[in-house]
Amino acid sequence: MTTMKPMPDLPFFKLWNISFGFFGIQIAYALQSVNISRIFSTLGADPHNLSFFWILPPLMGIIVQPIIGILSDRTWSRFGRRIPYLFIGAFMAVAVMCLLPNAGSLGLGFTAAMLFGLCALMLLDTSINMAMQPFKMMVGDMVNAKQKGLAYSIQSFLCNAGSLVGYVFPFIFAAVGISNIAEKGIVPDSVIYSFYIGALILILCVIYTTLKVKEYPPALYAQYHGIAESRATEKTRIIALLRRAPRTFWTTGLVQFFCWMAFMFMWTYTNGAIALSAFDAPLTEVADGDSVRVFIDTQSAQYQAAGNWVGILFAVQAVGSVLWSTVIPLFKNIKCAYVMSLVLGGIGFISIYFMHNPYLLFISYLLVGAAWAGMLAIPFTLVTNALKGGHVGTYLGLFNGTICVPQIVAASLGGIVLRVLTQDGQPAPEILMLVLAGIFLLIGAGCVRFIDDEK
Question: Considering the entire predicted model, what is its pTM?
Fold first, then answer.
């Protein structure tokens, strides 16, 4: 039987350095989240089909993250265990971030531009997932159980800080005079430049982490995790690992299902919902056989202004998340904190239906931020505390399936649900999808009672 050597407490700034690159990764993720619907709508996509474009991010996540977990569990190089995958993913992301917003600027036709955008989006999702996963794994590798809550809180803070920066970039660029409108089918310069600056910050942050963080060598890692060194690189059998997964893995995954369904609807439909409800974006009619279909005019100044404002709202959500993340540690019971976070978020989503003033929407998104704070910190704390042995990276890669699968389901069904809700001669009621998101969060809060808090 292998004796486990106690893992030492790490100084605050070492915990900070382990996760600092997450700031840059999250800028890239935020730019994607807030602008994908806007980019493809600008290219000419039907709002009922927008959810299908959103299948790619979670689909690539469910493929890439377990693979990165498995491969990095077996990797021991002079550059580290997780860091080589982080570095490769980051450089790929930088290259694709310079391509994606230019999908409409290359002189391609509608179909070719859509295909180019989809390919770029797929590569961006692949690279972001490849770069993001190592940060979660390094916390599992290098941080003891006592400090994991703090480590994931730091990661949550950096995640929200990066999100805030990425969300406000288009608004800031438009405010300083960079064009926020463009010809039909072309993405405005305010969005394109946001991706360029985000790519630069991303690579600088990742270089900082790779220079500052030294991962544990195999022998020391084996001692800290109570495994024989020879087992640190043993072959991984996914089915066997899933059978041995602690109950916390599955019960937390049930809550995750409803939470990530909700946020997929937010990312997909907020642009259209806010453009109509708070910015009175003009409508345009398109003949479709004997009927006339009504759409939002995505070339209008109101729609593009709403797109920038959505970035501000998502930034407000990030601020709400940071504020609520300081409250979560005050709860004596982590499950109570989880429930309260999701209930507040559910109320926030539902309240959007009643908020027609752009500034009143700050209240809604502050509440949504509470749910986001809980979703970022609590599930990984619960699951990593319940894990032991040499397959932490693989388990975290598999656990990301509880993030990706619900998003795939939401993206697959969102357009169908929206078509059912759309009345003849009326634009798609995208705001109702946000109400549905709120209902999902409330259901998720009810499912928290099934989670076992294993140590």
Answer: 0.75
Give the sign of the dihedral formed by CA 345, CA 349, CA 355, CA 358: positive
Q: Where are the alpha helices (DSSP H) in 143-188?
A: 145-175
Phi, psi of 25 (to 5 degrees): -60, -40
Residue 311 CB contacts under 8 Å (≥ 6 apart), including other chains: 34, 167, 168, 169, 170, 171
**CATH number of the domain within which 339 lies:** 1.20.1250.20
Res 453: pLDDT? 64
Which of 441 and 75 is assigned the larger pLDDT? 441
Average pLDDT over residues 8-14: 87
CA distance 165 to 266: 19
- Gap between the Cα atoms of 228 and 369, Å rounded: 42
Amino acid at 58: P
Q: Is 412 inside a domain boundary?
A: yes
Instruction: Tell me how many domains the chain contains.
Output: 1
Let me know if residue 435 belongs to a domain.
yes
Q: Model confidence over 162-185: pLDDT tens digits?
A: 888 888 888 899 889 898 887 777
Query: Under 8 Å CB-to-CB from 395, ≥6 apart: which residues?
Result: 69, 241, 245, 249, 383, 387
| Neighbouring-strand partners of residue 292 | 287
The span from the CA of 323 to the CA of 332, in Å, is 18
